[in-house]
């Protein structure tokens, strides 16, 4: 599978130090000595952390070929085309790009593609082969603390997904200030990082996510996600990372969860998670 689009002639200082997913190319120069004509920022199409048939029979290989291989790829390619026209947004991480292009509620043309790349990268990580069932003890305790019971959480998540009008996403997030879990829904490409929530998992409720396998049966799609696909392992890793890292990076799909534990600042108030 094609993953990265880039050819790098030389490195250029970026706005953020952690930009392994981002490469930059200046056309017309291989050593920096010639006149620079254009600056282009390329974002790669991230591969799901399993084979495209890895979620069968609950999400078919054909569905992933279309959803990841066509729709997600299209968002990446369209974003790169947009970014290639200007260097104003050059050098941003994907988090920074989503926030910058949202432009305080007056989105720039690049916003929808940038946010959909972010959302889909996170979505693939929110599922796993053999997923579903119940979260592990530490996450389960936090869910029971914040929702009353796992059954209540599940009902809330399903109800929120099915009440979403049109296209969008349903999320389990950590409220940064309140330090509690919550279920939220967003329309179109909107991402909760825009109001500083920390995503823990998400579910794609765009029609392209379910029509091949479930036609218009959204209820079956959502219940199948909860029963057989959701990655509580990834959710638990992210929540643990939130306990011991900067909240800024604790969800980033471009940074492996295992790498997050080494960050330094604390997000306090999740004592029920630590040590589990
Ligand atoms: Fe999608």
TrEMBL record:
The UniProt keywords, alphabetically, are: Metal-binding, Oxidoreductase
Any coiled-coil regions, as ranges: none
Q: Which InterPro entries match?
A: Mn/Fe_SOD, Mn/Fe_SOD_BS, Mn/Fe_SOD_C, Mn/Fe_SOD_N, Mn/Fe_SOD_N_sf, SOD_C_sf
Q: Which residues form the Manganese/iron superoxide dismutase C-terminal domain?
A: 138-235
According to the lineage, what is the superkingdom?
Answer: Eukaryota
N-terminal signal peptide: none
Record domain Manganese/iron superoxide dismutase N-terminal: where: 43-127
The record's PROSITE patterns line, in alphabetical order, gives:
SOD_MN (PS00088)
Q: What class of enzyme is it?
A: oxidoreductase
Cofactors needed by this protein, per the record, are: Fe cation
Does the record carry Oxidoreductase as a key word?
yes
Q: What EC number(s) has UniProt assigned to this enzyme?
A: 1.15.1.1
The similarity comment for this entry is: Belongs to the iron/manganese superoxide dismutase family.
PANTHER family assigned: SUPEROXIDE DISMUTASE, SUPEROXIDE DISMUTASE [FE] 3, CHLOROPLASTIC
**What is this protein's record name?**
superoxide dismutase
